[in-house]
Amino acid sequence: MANALDILPLHLLHVSNEIKEQIRLVYSHLRRIQKPQVDPTITALRDRILVLIQEEVEKIDVAELHFIVTSLHLSTYAMCNQEVELLTTEMHTQAGTGDERTQEHAVTAMLNLSICENNKSLIMAAGALDALVEVLRAGATMTARENAAATLFSLSMVNGYKLAIGEKPGAISGLVALLREGTSRGKKDAVTALFHLCFFAGNKAKVMNAGAIPVLLHLLSDERACITDDVLSILAVLAESKDGCATIDEGKATPVLVELLRLGSAKGKENAVAVLLALCKHGGEHVVSSLSRMDMALPAVEALSELGSSARAKRKASSLLKLLHMQLVSH
Prior knowledge:
Keywords: Ubl conjugation pathway. By secondary structure, the protein is mostly helical.
């Protein structure tokens, strides 16, 4: 559901990024106030924001926006730290206490804050990672769990935090659980977070040990999930190891991968051929032999080697084509 700050055309206003960030903080602060009607100042501010978003952009008074921002004593960017600490406390609120909505709002506000690069270090320094993982694993609502996953994805964009997130007990297993249980949006956030975490080599084994590959292979055939390309991206990363290839091979994924090589998106084809090539290299002759016997495999690989949308796709397809031709010649 859209809120005032989703609609407010901040990108069209000639104000500094600091003021825009402060406005977002105001919204996060306002939505966490349980009974705004007891404070006429808060009520007036909310009402004024609703009026502003209905006016023409050129009529919006920047000074008035600044007044709204400063009225809640969030007048400096440095006060983000206090907001993060408060949100961390609220996210620890347990389900069953009647505060499910508070927890959901807190983790949503944390997600909004994490989008700003400067806030990521504040979130980590405040110890919010423990609370995020707690909500991810056992949040009061599915929305809270999914927004916790999205926040972890946002934080995982920083290379230095990939290790910390991967080492946090329950983080990777919680993301894998969300892959099984979440909505389409939640599954996408979970798989994207796992993908970025895998760029730290030490996290790959943890992702596989958490049982991610069987879940990912199931999602390849789930059209309702709408995350086929995302799944192929992380499978291509996990297939770089022998253990990853062995688990993918056990899942009998080759027919599905060939189908995606034929009919998938450009990015999907690129990652599908990368997984197939890795399976052939790490899986031995039986994988190459099995692939060469599939009627549609060779034409699909040949087409990609010539018409692939990227140099990587063509290179991977050409390498796989050589292996298949060698197999055919030897037999």
